[in-house]
Amino acid sequence: MGSLTISNKVLDKYFGYLKSLDNSAKKNLIIKLTKSIEIKSKKAFDINSIFGAWEDDKSSDEIISEIKSSRIEKRNNPSLG
User: Fold this and answer.
1) What spatial distance separates the first Cα and last Cα of the chain, rounded to whole Å?
2) What b-and-e string marks burial along 1-30, b requiring 16 or more CB atoms within 10 Å of the CB?
3) Is 79's pLDDT higher than 70?
4) pLDDT tens-digit readout, 38-77
5) Residue 7 backbone class (left: φ over 0; alpha: ψ -120 to 50; beta: rest)
6) Residue 66's closest CA among 56, 53, 78, 77?
7) What span, in angstroms and rounded, lies between the C-alpha atoms of 65 and 71?
8) For the residues 12-29, what does the mean pLDDT come to?
9) Residue pair 45/34 in contact by the 8 Å Cβ criterion
10) Residue 5 near residue 11, CB atoms below 8 Å
11) Which of 21, 22, 36, 78 has its CA 20 to 30 A from that of 69?
């Protein structure tokens, strides 16, 4: 997930809303915010998970024929009415 950067003016506006919360709600908010900034260890990336052989029962000629038959000819038709 990407990060959102906001100005101090906007932060002050949020704080204006949040300062009226009870202490329990403030503590829960602090806990959630703290957990959101903790550095989480990234899972090791397995390069083998991004490639593999094509699996299909069709022959290469059948696949080529399907590709060619699914092509759509672009028509130049500027007027629709």
Assistant:
1) 46
2) eeeeeeeeeeeeeeeeeeeeeeeeeeeeee
3) no
4) 776 667 777 777 887 777 889 889 999 999 999 887 776 6
5) beta
6) 56
7) 10
8) 92
9) no
10) no
11) 78
CA distance linking residue 64 with residue 58, whole number of Å: 10
Residue position matching structure tokens 């806990």: 31
Q: In the structure encoding, which two tokens stand for residue 47, read together? A: 């390069």
Residue written as token pair 């949020």: 14
3-class DSSP string for the chain: CCCCCCCHHHHHHHHHHHCCCCHHHHHHHHHHHHHHHCCCCCCCCCHHHHCCCCCCCCCHHHHHHHHHHCCCCCCCCCCCC
CA 71/CA 53 separation, integer angstroms? 25
